[in-house]
Amino acid sequence: MRIIRAKDYKDMSRKAANIISAQVILKPDSVLGLATGSSPIGTYEQLVKWYEKDDLDFADVTTVNLDEYYGMKPENDQSYHYFMHDHFFDHVNIDPSRINLPNGMEPDEKKECARYDAVLRSVGDVDIQLLGIGRNGHIGFNEPDDCFAKGTHCVELTESTIEANKRFFVSEDEVPRRAYSMGIHTIMTAKKVLVVASGEDKAWAIRESCFGPVTPKVPGSILQLHNDAIVIADEAALSLCGDFL
Ligand SMILES: N[C@@H]1[C@@H](O)[C@H](O)[C@@H](COP(=O)(O)O)O[C@@H]1O
């Protein structure tokens, strides 16, 4: 696991966008695993800027997203489908037929998990998986658990995640309680994993994920076993790692 120290959110975002753009330049038909949340927004903004300057071409890129809220219509502005279009897809020349996300509107969990796993198999290896991290160390929506989930699954969100995500909703009651998420095994098969973390509220998750025991109680800790995992974290997110760096 490589840890790259960033000055602040902007610096973190530029560093992450640099790694993704190098990937797309070197391999124009890359498969990008994409993430939502406030952490990667700056990365998408930077990629869009470079695209607008004609420095990047996404025409042959395929994307797979980590997760989606269960029961959420894609046109709902809190859906991850909406988020991805709003922050990235609608601003670059990505082919809509190469965009893949879990379908939150499929009520049959078994069916949707099997469908999305088949999609993931059909696109082949993910070249770079971008990840944010939850305050409790969750990645995608793989919440702390007794074991690591393998493939796509439907998750009950923890109180800590509901609490953290309520800032995006009018009231806590509106925060969905369940979500579809790519599994840990799928995340671990990506050729490269890129975690972006900013702010003090991520400090515990970053310390435990990078230097704590590898345990499903802190899902991000499994990334210590990945052979090409990069964590780009700002000073605040690294503030509890002092003794280890
Ligand atoms: N499913 C997403 C995660 O993919 C994201 O990493 C996490 C942290 O979000 P933020 O970056 O807004 O702190 O939030 C959600 O739970």
TrEMBL record:
Keywords: Carbohydrate metabolism, Hydrolase
Record-linked SUPFAM superfamilies: NagB/RpiA/CoA transferase-like
Gene3D superfamilies in UniProt: 3.40.50.1360
Domain of life of the organism encoding this protein: Bacteria
Catalytic activity: alpha-D-glucosamine 6-phosphate + H2O = beta-D-fructose 6-phosphate + NH4(+)
Domain named Glucosamine/galactosamine-6-phosphate isomerase: residues: 21-226
The EC number(s) this enzyme carries: 3.5.99.6
Active site (record annotation): D67 (proton acceptor), N136 (for ring-opening step), H138 (proton acceptor), E143 (for ring-opening step)
Pathway the protein takes part in: Amino-sugar metabolism; N-acetylneuraminate degradation; D-fructose 6-phosphate from N-acetylneuraminate: step 5/5
The keyword Hydrolase is assigned to this record: yes
Cited PROSITE patterns: GLC_GALNAC_ISOMERASE (PS01161)
NCBIfam families cross-referenced by the UniProt entry: nagB (TIGR00502)
Functional note: Catalyzes the reversible isomerization-deamination of glucosamine 6-phosphate (GlcN6P) to form fructose 6-phosphate (Fru6P) and ammonium ion.
Similarity comment: Belongs to the glucosamine/galactosamine-6-phosphate isomerase family. NagB subfamily.
This protein's name: Glucosamine-6-phosphate deaminase
